[in-house]
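Figure 3 (text version): structure tokens given as input.
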């Protein structure tokens, strides 16, 4: 197997390892919120630690490692990049340390937004080692030199490169924020400010990657592109241009009000216009392909379509819930669970579609059938979970004995959240099971990927 393909497969393994571990912790989080059973995990501090590690593994580790896996597929004159193979074991070590930090009694949970932390050196060592490993893995010549890949068309390669460039910009934003941040701030406020800017910039990186894999998935379905290289470059550039100001925003960190406002506005107005244009073009292309009989069978029989459709529903739901945020209640996690779910389900479907690239095939026909419906199961669960949180509209970041339900509507909302969480967890477990079975099966029969 070519070196770039092998590295991509290994980074995908790290990404799936983060998602798998974080997904297991989500079971505790759902139980800690759901009525009747929330007393099973009465210790709110343990639930908060689970939340912190869950967020870092299922967002920072899963998304970042997946972007590196996509980046490793790019070839430049038959060369491969990377820093002497060091980033990969570093990323694995970081993942392990983050997980271990959950079980350290001295670690105190700090529920800062975007990147919550456990205030202990083991957690920070894991976070720092993983972040440095990702940076080393993407800081090479493939970022700017002409590249190709066996599967990703030119517009998708552009999206991958914009995602990588944005990750590097997030690192610069973090460094500026860290150098200028007031050390005397209270712990909660310190980490809130430290990660506010980098968290907002990373959102853009995740969306760039999501749009890139949408191009890939739709081409797998229809055999043609819904957007060509020049329009894609224009749209990606339009979304990236506001990010050029992020180092300046980070430099204003001592003016806390302005710092928080500028990055919030960046998220509010910088993402949804381009995403909506992509959705319009993709749906129009799919409709035309179906009308012209360019597609065989039902669209819902393809995991690529189910992944794309679930992502569209979730990202639009996230936009709507985001517009309805009025205070610090569960509408906020409803918004970001929908948005994060959109990226996750896109990456899940893409993982299946990349199996042939890694010389992998579903070992059984039954597993291939399950793969077609897995994105729909996960997407439906994530939609219900987000909708339940939005309907409950109660205080956020409370678990176990801290949670007090005041009304019937809150009980209904939390019940819907619990059911949705169960479906989402089942969808996540199914994804992990299908992936592990395919990765480690010796029966590489070529059942249809799409």
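Below: residues designed for each position.
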């Amino acid at each position: 197997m070519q070196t770039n393909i092998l590295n991509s497969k290994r980074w995908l393994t790290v990404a799936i390892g983060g998602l798998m571990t974080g997904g297991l912790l989500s079971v505790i989080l759902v139980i800690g919120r759901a009525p009747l059973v929330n007393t099973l995990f009465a210790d709110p501090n343990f639930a908060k630690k689970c939340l912190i590690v869950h967020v870092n593994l299922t967002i920072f580790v899963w998304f970042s490692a997946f972007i590196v896996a996509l980046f490793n597929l790019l070839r430049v004159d038959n060369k491969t990049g990377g820093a002497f193979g060091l980033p990969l074991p570093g990323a694995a070590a970081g993942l392990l340390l983050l997980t271990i930090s959950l079980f350290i009694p001295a670690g105190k949970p700090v529920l800062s937004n975007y990147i919550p932390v456990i205030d202990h050196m083991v957690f920070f060592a894991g976070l720092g080692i993983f972040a440095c490993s990702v940076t080393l893995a993407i800081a090479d010549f493939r970022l700017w030199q002409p590249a190709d890949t066996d599967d990703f068309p030119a517009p998708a390669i552009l999206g991958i490169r914009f995602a990588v460039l944005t990750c590097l910009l997030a690192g610069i934003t973090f460094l500026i924020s860290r150098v200028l941040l007031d050390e005397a701030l209270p712990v909660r406020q310190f980490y809130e400010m430290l990660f506010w800017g980098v968290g907002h910039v990373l959102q853009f990186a995740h969306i760039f990657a999501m749009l890139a894999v949408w191009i890939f998935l739709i081409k797998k379905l229809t055999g043609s592109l819904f957007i060509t290289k020049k329009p894609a470059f224009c749209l990606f550039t339009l979304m990236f241009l506001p990010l050029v100001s992020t180092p300046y925003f980070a430099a204003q960190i001592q003016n806390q009000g302005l710092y928080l406002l500028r990055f919030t506005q960046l998220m509010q107005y910088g993402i949804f216009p381009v995403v909506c244009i992509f959705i319009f073009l993709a749906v129009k292309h799919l409709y035309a392909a179906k009308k012209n009989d360019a597609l065989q069978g039902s669209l819902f029989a393809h995991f690529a379509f189910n992944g794309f459709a679930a992502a569209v529903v979730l990202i639009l739901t996230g936009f709507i819930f985001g517009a309805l945020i009025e205070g610090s209640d569960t509408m906020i996690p409803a918004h970001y669970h929908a948005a994060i779910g959109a990226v996750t389900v896109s990456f899940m479907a893409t993982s299946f579609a990349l199996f042939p690239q890694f010389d992998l095939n579903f070992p059984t026909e039954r597993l291939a059938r399950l793969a077609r419906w897995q994105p729909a199961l996960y997407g439906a669960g994530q939609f219900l979970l987000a909708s339940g949180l939005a309907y409950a509209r109660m205080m956020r970041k409370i678990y176990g004995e801290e949670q007090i339900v005041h009304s019937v509507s809150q009980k209904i909302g939390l019940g819907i959240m619990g059911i949705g969480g169960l479906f989402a967890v089942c969808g996540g477990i199914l994804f992990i099971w299908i992936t592990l079975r395919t990765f480690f099966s010796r029966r590489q029969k070529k059942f249809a990927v799409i």
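The chain is about 70% helix and 0% strand.
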